[in-house]
Write a structure and sequence with these properties.
This protein is α+β, with helices and mostly antiparallel strands. It is built from three helices and five strands; from the N terminus they run E-E-E-E-E-H-H-H. It has one domain: 2-Layer Sandwich (Hypothetical Cytosolic Protein, Chain: A), CATH 3.30.1230. The strands form two sheets. A three-stranded antiparallel β-sheet has the order 4-3-5.
Amino acid sequence: MAERTCIGCRTVREKSELVRLAASGGVLEADLKGIMPGRGAYICPNEACLKEAYKKKDPFSRALKRKVVLPLLEELWVKIKGRI
């Protein structure tokens, strides 16, 4: 099975255990169905990993290889939490 690395905690896990994030119109969004075009970044479905990623120096833009605007952490977490 495919493995991916969480951009928050840097743990390698099965792709199915992580939430894909992608850019839509330059804004970071949770790709819960995994169908958005382009590169994806992956994160564990827990708030601690998301908070850790937000503390780092723009890991989302680095992973997606393009500049992205981050939504409020709480807004993104609500969308991710809906997947759990």
